[in-house]
Every structure is written in C-alpha cells, then in structure tokens.
Specification:
- The chain is an alpha+beta fold.
- The protein folds into three domains: about 50 residues, no CATH class; about 80 residues, no CATH class; about 80 residues, no CATH class.
- The protein is built from four helices and eleven strands; from the N terminus they run βββαβββββββααβα.
- The strands form five sheets. It has a three-stranded antiparallel β-sheet with strand order 1-3-2, with no helix packed on it. The chain has a two-stranded antiparallel ribbon with strand order 4-7.
- β5 and β6 form a beta hairpin.
- α2 crosses α3.
- The longest helix is centred in the C-terminal third of the chain and has 18 residues.
- GO terms for molecular function: catalytic activity.
- This is Endonuclease/exonuclease/phosphatase domain-containing protein.
- InterPro entries: Endo/exonu/phosph_ase_sf (IPR036691).
Length: about 240
C-alpha cells in the first residue's frame, strides 16, 4: 500500500508552530524539498507560536531516463539548494518526463527546464515534441499562466537605420548650459517629498532642455540590423546549412 507521500507531488503544512526554518525535511517526506516557508508568530513570551506554513515539492519524479551521472547529481543539488524546481516530469503532458535527446549512441533527458519555487504556479504545462529534424534534440514547449499585452496602436515598421538625438558637449557653450540648468524650473522641487523616479525624470528633462536651448544636440545614426556569423566548425558542412 502506498503512503500519502507517494501519492502527491506538493504537500502543504499549515499551523506548523515553527518560528525558524527547518534545516531538513521530515523523514516521512523523503524525496521532497522545502519550496516555501512562512514562520509562525509568537506574540507572547510564554506559550507556543501561532500560524506557520511550509510547502514541500517532490524532487523524485517519474522519468524515462533512469541514468543520472555525477554531473547531473551535482546540478540537481545546486538547483535545489537555490530553491529551483525541475519542471520536466511534473506536468500533465510530460509525466513521466520524456526523452529530449535521441541519437545512435543512446537517449536521455538532458534539456531541462527549471523554475524558482516562488513562481511554480506560473507553469501551466510542459511538452516534449517528438519532431524528427536535423537535430538530435526534441523541441520542448513550456506553457505559462501569463498574458502578453502588445501595443497594436501603431504599425511595427522595422527600420534597420534610425537616428537619435544625443548631447554633443561644447566647452565654449558650457557657461550658457550651466546657467540654463541653474534656472530650470525642473530642478525647483522638494527632494524630501519626491520619489527617486520623479527626481530622475526632472533631472533628465532639465539636462535635455538645457542642451536644446544651448544648441548642444546632434543627430546620431544607429544601425539596428544584426549580422549572424556562423563559427566554421568541422561538422558544420553544406548539409547543416541546408537543414538550417
């Protein structure tokens, strides 16, 4: 008969009465790691503390790959020590975790997806697509519980060449620039009551307006196109170029 710890992947403990974070998981939760902890509050000097929450996440999960070498063990220990959880093998479409690498030499799960424990709820699903391509690795798709909002009010016309205005310092106009800056209404603010962002925006506007008044602006052309250069490895032949 299976124990309760073998039937679940996430185990929550409430009203733990623990003020300090435990160093190790209880023996009954062998194969789990502590993903989140909220200490109990002790309001009086006598008596026990009230509240407390601990969330444990299973680290041992089903996988088609039964081999784990020393490097894999070191990686898992490092990630778990820094509160990261392995997503492979823990979602609806990847239970147990499917092979992500298949070659004549063997097959394994080497394309891993990690997420910090605080954002574990943002993962909706993970799926390994068994698509045959020019690579020995299969694509891994991760679905997240988030909405991406894009601005569709203006057309996205890509221009590899664009110009921006920059300040071109002219020492002959330095006195005029300083005078404009000193009398700028942008810096006449109460620094004790304004936020850091507000102070920055006012100072930036004061500098730009003073530069504009003294004629210290110049137009600079910026190229935004990116050229990708392939490293000429011995294995990167004409067949690889065609497959790409």
């Amino acid at each position: 008969m299976q124990s309760f710890s073998e039937l679940v992947d996430i185990f929550c403990c409430v009203e733990t009465w623990l003020v300090d974070k435990p160093l190790n998981c209880p023996p009954v939760l062998n194969g789990f790691q502590l993903a989140a902890f909220s200490g109990a509050v002790k309001e009086k000097s006598r008596g026990r503390a009230s509240g407390g929450l601990m969330v444990f996440v299973r680290t041992e999960h089903g996988s088609c790959d039964r081999i784990c070498n020393s490097k894999g063990t070191s990686l898992i220990e490092f990630m778990e020590l820094n509160s990261f959880v392995l997503v492979n093998g823990r979602t609806l479409r990847d239970t147990p975790s499917q092979f992500t690498y298949v070659s004549p030499q063997g097959q394994s799960v080497v394309d891993l997806v990690w997420i910090d424990s605080l954002h574990l709820a943002e993962v909706r699903d993970l799926e390994v697509l068994g698509i045959v391509s020019g690579s020995d690795h299969f694509p891994v798709i991760v679905s997240l519980n988030c909405v991406i909002v894009s601005d569709t009010s203006s057309p996205c016309n890509y221009d590899p060449k664009s110009s921006v205005k920059v300040i071109a310092w002219d020492k002959d106009k330095a006195d005029v620039f300083i005078n404009c800056l000193l009398f700028s209404p942008r810096i006449c603010i109460n620094f004790d009551k304004e936020t850091i962002n507000s102070i920055y925006e006012n100072l930036y506007s004061a500098l730009m307006e003073s530069a504009s008044q003294t004629g210290m602006f110049s137009t600079k052309l910026i190229r935004r196109d990116v050229t990708v250069t392939h490293i000429k490895n011995l294995w990167y032949d004409e067949e690889c170029k065609k497959m790409k």
